[in-house]
Structure formats: C-alpha cells, structure tokens
Amino acid sequence: MKLNTNYANIGKNYLFAEIARRVEAYKAKNPGAKIVRLGIGDVSGPLAPAVIEAMHKAVDDEATKERFHGYGPEQGYAFLREKIAASDYVSRGIDMSADEIFVSDGAKSDCANFQELLSPEAKIAVADPVYPVYVDSNVMAGRGGAETGGRHDGIVYLECNRANGFTPGPDQAKGCDAVYLCFPNNPTGAVATRERLQEWVDWANATGALLLFDAAYESFVRTPGVPKSIYECEGARGCAVEFRSFSKTAGFTGTRCGFTVVPEGIAARAPDGTELSLRKMWSRRQTTMFNGASYISQRGAEAVYSPEGAAQCKAATDFYLENARLIKEALVSRGLPVCGGDDSPYLWVETGASGWDMFDRLLEEAQVVVTPGEGFGRAGAGFIRISSFNSRENTLEAIDRLGRTL
Amino acid sequence: MKLNTNYANIGKNYLFAEIARRVEAYKAKNPGAKIVRLGIGDVSGPLAPAVIEAMHKAVDDEATKERFHGYGPEQGYAFLREKIAASDYVSRGIDMSADEIFVSDGAKSDCANFQELLSPEAKIAVADPVYPVYVDSNVMAGRGGAETGGRHDGIVYLECNRANGFTPGPDQAKGCDAVYLCFPNNPTGAVATRERLQEWVDWANATGALLLFDAAYESFVRTPGVPKSIYECEGARGCAVEFRSFSKTAGFTGTRCGFTVVPEGIAARAPDGTELSLRKMWSRRQTTMFNGASYISQRGAEAVYSPEGAAQCKAATDFYLENARLIKEALVSRGLPVCGGDDSPYLWVETGASGWDMFDRLLEEAQVVVTPGEGFGRAGAGFIRISSFNSRENTLEAIDRLGRTL
Fold it and tell me: What radius of gyration, in Å, describes the C-alpha atoms of chain A?
C-alpha cells in the first residue's frame, strides 16, 4: 500500500491528546484527586443566552417542513457572512465583502487545511513556540522533512524570546513563501503592535509571500491601538488570509464554527505562469471537500452579533481576562517572568525547568494541568503556558496551589 | 507565491455549485417559475422528532455550567461511537470496536480527506460515473494529472455500464493502490451483490490495495442479501475503510454528522519499510486537523439509534423509496432504461441526449432540476440522475412534467 510516508516525520501524538493521556493516567492512579485544568485552551462555558435561544430556534426550524435547512452553501449562509463582514470589519473601517468570508466548522480545520493551496515545494515559516497545527499539517503534507532536535529541516522557525517581545519580525523569514502569524499569540499571549504587523505586510507585498494570520484570540484585545485584525494594516488585502473562531469569542469549542477571510485582492501566479486567485482556490477547495458548518451552529454564531449576544460574550471574555490578571499578579509577585495575560487568555511563564518535567510535577504536587512550553517548540523549553479559561473558584484554587509549588 | 498548481487541472466549479448557478440564473429570468428540484441529493426534511428532542436537550446542556461540553474527543464522543459499533455492526454479526469509528462533520469531508494518507504517487481507481469528490480531492492533491476528454491521465476509471450492471469488477483495477467504491451507488443507484464485493475484497487482500467504501446510502437497502457494509465480506477488516453518513439515513444534510470506519486490522508498510497503521494515521490526521463534530449534532446522531429514532428515520427512507418507485414506474412505462431506485434514492436514466443539454431542456421546459450524467464522468453521457428526495406532491408533479417532456 503506497502510504504518505511524511506521517513518519511527525510526533506520535498531537500535543493535547498527549496531555489528555497523561492526565487520564494520573486520574486512574489517583481517583480522588481534584484536578484543575489550565492546560488546553478550552472555555468553561456556558454559552451566551442569546446563542442558546438562537440554537433552540434553529433546532425547531429543522423540525418543520417549511423552515428545514438541508445542505447549505459550503461557504456558509449569507445571513452569517454578512453579519461578520459588517460587524468585524466594515464597522471598524476595514473594506470587506461577505463573499470574502468562508464559514467553517472551526479555525483548527481551516488553519490545517489552508496549506493545501500551496505548492508542496513552498517554504513555510512559523514562530517558535507555535500552535502545533500549522507545523504538523505542513509536515503531513511533505513540507517539513525530518525532525532534528524538535525542528523540521524544511521549515523556517521564527525565534520568539524576551529580546523581541515574543513578536518576531520578517528579518527571520528570508526566502519564505508563506508565514503563519498568530496575535494575540497562542501560546505566549504576546500581542503585536500595528507597526510590527505593518512590517510583515510590507515585507509580504514586496516579496510575494503569503501571510496566514490566526486571529482566534482577537476578542481578548482591550488595550487601545492593539490590532484585532491583520486588515488594519495597509496593503494586507493583497497578501494576507485571516483565520477567526467563535470558540474563544463565544465559547463555541463544542459547537464548532469559525471562519476564514480570503480577500479578492490576493492574485497569484503559479510557477508555470497560470494565474490563480487564492479566493477562488479556497472556494473550490471548500465546495469540493467540505459541506458547510451545521445550520444550528451558524444560527448560534449569528446571535453572537446581536446586541445582547455581543454584550454576553464580552462579559465572558472579560471574566477570563480577570482570571488572567489574577494569575499574572500572583506569579509576578513571586518573581516569575510572565508574558501575556493582558490582551490574551494565555500566560507564558518562564519557570526554567523542562516542560514535561514541570508538567508532571505540577500535576503530581499541585494537581494543576498546564501545557509544557516545549510542546509548542524548542524555544518553549523552560516555559509553561497557563490558560485562564476556568471558573473563578478554580482559578483562585490553582493560584494558591501553584504558589505553594512554584 | 508558490501555489498548488494541481488546481489548474480541475474543472472551474464543483458540479453541484454549477447546477445551483444555472438554477439561480433561470430563476432570475423566470421569477414566477415553480421549480421542482430532483438534482442535488438533498433530503426535504424535517428531522425525526427523537433527533429534535435530543438536540434541544443538548442545546440546554450548553446553557449550563455543569453539563457544558467544550472541546470533545476529535474522534467523536464514546456515547455515539459505542452506539454505532453496536447497532450498525456488532448486532449484524460484524466484529467492530468503538475505537475503530471516527465521527466527523460528514462523509463528504472524510471521503475528500482520506486520500491524504496515501502517497502522492499512489494510483487510484474510481468508477465512471462517479461522485466527483473522490476524483477532485485526488486531483487537487496531485494524483490526477491533466484532463483529457473528461478524464485525468493519472486516474484509472472503472467503466460502469449496462453490460456489467453498473458494478465493475477488479479486473479493471490492475496496478491500483486504492479503489473508491460506493454501493448503493451514487449516481447510478446500482447495488453490488455480496459476491461482487467479495471479489473486490479478495483482490485487495491479494494485491495489498486499499478499498475506500462509501456506504452513505446503506439505509435504503431493503432487498434481502444486498450488503449494507463492506465488512459483510470476509477479510474486509484487513483492506477496507468504510464511510457512512447521517445525511441520508436521518436527514442530517444541514446538521452535519457522519463517520468513517478504519479497522485496526489494516497494517501497511510504506515503501521505505516504515510500518504505519492506517487507523493510527487517520487518528493522527483527525486529532491534528479537525476538532470533532458539533456536540449538538452528535447528540442528535445518538438519537438515531434509539428505538423511536430508528423507526422515524426508517419511515423517512421508506417514504423516499416510494417516491423512487413511482418515478421508476413512470419512466419504465415510457420505455426509458432505468437503473437504481429499488435499494437507492437515485435513478439513473438513459435519455440518450447530452447531459447539460438535457439539464437545460428539463429546466426550461419542465422546470425540473436533475443532475446531468456527464457531471459524474464520461460514461455518464446520455444519462441523467434523478433524486427521489422530495415531497410526494412535488414528486408527482415532476413525474407529470417529465412525462410530457421526455
């Protein structure tokens, strides 16, 4: 059987599956332990009342002959795409049409699938540390090559460290065809200034590279002037794709809905001279390989844009940000260097110890689950990621326990 | 920008997107026309009451802190996978474990994505006529090559015609690494005998090829002895993957849920000697590139296996099968050769005329939308596919109008 041998180049387990495995093993041995999970970036719910109401209505639609919705447009219903274009972009002064929005079952799928539009020979760059999906999807597709010391030969890694404020610049991406950027960042919680993003956009337009901008955490931005979208930069419509999610904005981690923006302006010429529109390619990919997000989830997502829905979702992100502030305060007061936690639900904490060792120690001594920094890349060694997605009670409990262990 | 130039090798539009475009254009010119759609294979709803009830409950779960479900297992919840393994397989005498079931947002995604596990050099075979997703996803991935006369150089086409009862045998698939089979078939409505499927399984086990078996329409099988699953054949657990969908079984075309079966038994050796388990590869693919189907949809799918849910869904497929019987009776009485419509919601009708011409003629003269046979491949020329997914009233109206035109 002729299989895709690139699978031999990736780690055995997806990072969060490995964390789940270790936690399950610990629970099996310690059935009474009260574990607090600050590991995976999953919201603690519940969904906003406006979303619940909209989804009940949508379920009722599916119970009637008249309002039944079967196959929808693969790109997503116009009712949702128009709200997204108007509320997330046009109302904020950004030129955007509903035809440039592609609704999906979540940003993870889109972030993972988008590389299919690139040539197998395309050179890609990712940050280090990085959300593993960008790397693994490219490795599976053959752009990674063998792994040496936690890095794949074929991929360019943009070192993120305290010196560059965890926001690398294009000087590290020479010769790359596509660059994944994520701000507010997962895992570091860092945000990029508009000036830094503009450097990337200018570089991409000058070199013909593509920016793949993951804005899944934009709804946590509170500091005035911090960009929520790559399209706040001049010229971004000519070189940047943006991934967005309702998972963190509105707690849709189990409901599954996100979207990708592919502006009409990205014109590209393949090496053989063929002119290909990136928007049309993504449209062809999605219409052929995907059948649209659940109608019920799309109606739920629509409600995120109602005045009530928006206020309820903002209250939830405010709540997580307050958790983040409390955790940050406690860790900083202990002298630990912490990045993130201001415009982001994540804190990137320098503990100095090896990530999986620290993971196991915190699990065993404090019954707190964090994410080991090296799970996000070599430059993550010595760090842990702490997520603020939890109840206040659990957060305070975790702060107390972490304080005794760290 | 280094793009995937294989996109230049596929037709501009996905078949059903092209049909939608032509229907919209006709409607714009003829705003009063009452169009009956027997084109796309979409159910006419509504969902079964048991499914509706389960989804309302699931939405309510998402409204509470205690029962909120965020990220679920990428492979699907055990509550659903266990029901699937028990009801669709074990109760029918087929060995199957819940760990071999992978729940997704639908069979289209899985059918399209599964080729990622194959080497770019793998030789694939498809039937002609064929559901376009198998072909297009492979062409985009580089296994198709250029198109000449409606066929891609790199793909092997298994001719389906009246002589072989529209069920080709492995004699046509020499040298192929993977073969897509679909029974009951889309588009021809043909079913395969157990003997025919056993020939395929024996051939695959003898040659080391992989069978990708699409059983999306199994719930329409009524004739005793006609296989509903490839695993009814001896040895299939060693060579076959099976795709299933709740779309046609339970009207989930807008709810989005399906599943893929990858048995533990498919052991494979890559060309470089690396041993790769296909089940583990698919697990790695799904955990990395997908985040699970909507919790609400999975709860809805679970209800399909309750006694009430099963009875309600069976009544719906019975209803469509009666539509199919009525259409078939009318066409046969007019002397048209018809395949399918017995254990399948589709009828494959030989009209002799070119597919798109016949499509346009039926749209303009009868305001009936069908699917042009050549949209499914060169061997589909001279045929149209008629779908029985509709109300009785519309079906009778379409029979009347088709009778006057054909």
Answer: 21
Residues A14, B52: C-beta atoms closer than 8 Å: no
Q: Given this model, what pLDDT does residue B405 score?
A: 87
CB contact under 8 A, B117 and A3: yes
Among B281, B306, B331, identify where a domain stops. B306
Burial class (CB in 10 A: 0-12, 13-18, 19+), B128: buried
The CATH number of residue A360's host domain is 3.90.1150.10
The domain boundary, picked from B306, B332, B367, lies at: B306
Tokens at A230, concatenated: 């790559």
pLDDT digits (tens, 9 = 90+) for B137-164: 999 999 999 988 889 999 999 999 999 9
Q: Distance, in angstroms, between B66 CA and closest chain A CA?
A: 9
Structure confidence at residue B379 (pLDDT): 94
B236 in the same domain as B158: yes
| Domain count across chain B | 2
Q: Do A69 and B106 touch (CB under 8 A)?
A: no
Is A3 within 8 Å of B112 when comparing Cβ atoms? no
Q: Is the pLDDT of residue A13 over 80?
A: no
Nearest to A117 among B4, B63, B285 (CB): B4
> Do B64 and B32 fall within a single domain?
no
Tell me the pLDDT of chain A averaged across its residues.
94
Nearest CA to CA, how far is B331 from chain A (Å)? 27
Q: Which residue of A has its CA nearest to B66?
A: A46
SS3 per residue for chain B: CCECHHHHHCCCCCHHHHHHHHHHHHHHHCCCCCCEECCCCCCCCCCCHHHHHHHHHHHHHHCCCCCCCCCCCCCCCHHHHHHHHHHHHHHHCCCCCHHHEEEECCHHHHHHHHHHHECCCCCEEEEECCCHHHHHHHHHCCCCCCEECCEECCCEEEECCHHHCCCCCHHHHCCCCEEEEECCCCCCCCCCCHHHHHHHHHHHHHHCCEEEEECCCHHHCCCCCCCCCHHHCCCHHHCEEEEEEHHHHHCCCCCCCEEEECCCCCEEECCCCCEEEHHHHHHHHHHHHCCCCCHHHHHHHHHCCCHHHHHHHHHHHHHHHHHHHHHHHHHHHCCCCEEECCCCCEEEEECCCCHHHHHHHHHHHHCEECEEHHHHCHHHCCEEEEECCCCHHHHHHHHHHHHHHC
Amino acid at B23: V
User: Which residue from A49, A209, A254 is facing B71, i.e. has the nearest CB?
Assistant: A254
**Taking CA atoms, what residue in B is nearest to A209?**
B1
Residues of A in contact with B249 (CB under 8 A): none
